[in-house]
Amino acid sequence: MYKVAVLPGDGIGTEVMDQAIKVLKRIEEKYNTKFHCEFSDVGGIAIDNYGTPLPDHTLKICENSDAILFGSVGGPKWENLPPAQQPERGALLPLRKHFNLFVNIRPVKVYPALKESCSLKDKFIEDGLDIVILRELTGGIYFGQPKYVSEDRKYAVDTMKYSVEEITRIAKVAFETARLRRRTVTSVDKANVLMTSVLWREVVTELWKNEYSDINLNHMYVDNASMQLVRNPSQFDVILTENMFGDILSDEAAMLTGSLGMLPSASLNEKGFGLYEPIGGTAPDIAGKGIANPTAQILSAALMLRYSFKMEEAAKNIENALEETLKNGFRTGDIYYGDEGTIKVNTEEFGSEIIKRI
Ligand code: IPM
Ligand code: MN
Questions:
Q1: CA 281 to ligand 1: nearest atom
Q2: Nearest CA to ligand 1 atom 9
Q3: I want to staple 40 with a disulfide (CB 3.0 to 4.6 A). Which of 58, 62, 88, 290 is the partner?
Q4: Domain 119-257, what fold?
């Protein structure tokens, strides 16, 4: 039996989470296991119900679970609250910090059936696309102190800070990941401008020399990397980068797969405890309509099975079921272009099609 803290959050979070839970139920049946799911409010809905984006009882449930399955938080309703009380700053970032989830894994894969939804012309993704973005998640400018707007509101400060230890531990994960793949790490920084990047490059290079010289290591400036991602994405295997660069590059990479709604992520700490969430947000424009793409949430659940519960076969089963669903022409609105042989379905129907194929 596994205990899962389920935090659907706001916007499409609840709609796509319903589908992920349905998938987990099917996995329970098929693999004769049990997921004890404990639901709790987080983000804007928690502000509405309890006056705080991360209530103590929600945190307790997370602490007492084997993994956290997270939807998404935020929306226009809470955008005018003081920054510290907003859903993202008040719930998601503290959760990442509290559990020390410094490894953020974002797999970027173009499914053959979805080649036509890739934002690039066919010839640019001829070799297919299979990238892993490894984003440092608990350091850098997201968390560095001091961080404030001056009292007279005439200036503001954010601090970008990285220690050797923080760089080393994420770089190790990148090299280890590459060893199981195509043995290529592209470390993305801005070493021509930022001192944190100078240190980043030094530490990554030193570690590579001492322990991972069997890996092909390239360094790339972040502006160039963002260009290379749309020019020739197949050159990348593992992208290793700091918190904010990883945030930006992963949205860009997501569009190569057809939609922001396709990309899952796993955030892990040293002990392997994990939080699993789609890389996209709450999509307020389509929330409540039941048309969101549940893929990222369902694939996040698959990553939970893989990394937290070591259920590799079940994880693969979900991924294959998704691939089959796409192959059979089912599309949510974000990846539907009216092509022959495709049919537009809603969130619930798409989830059910996946479950049929597990
Ligand atoms: C992500 C999101 C978050 C981030 C937001 C919601 C704080 O964009 O997970 O990529 O910036 O990390
Ligand atoms: Mn993001």
A1: 6
A2: 279
A3: 58
A4: Isopropylmalate Dehydrogenase (3.40.718)
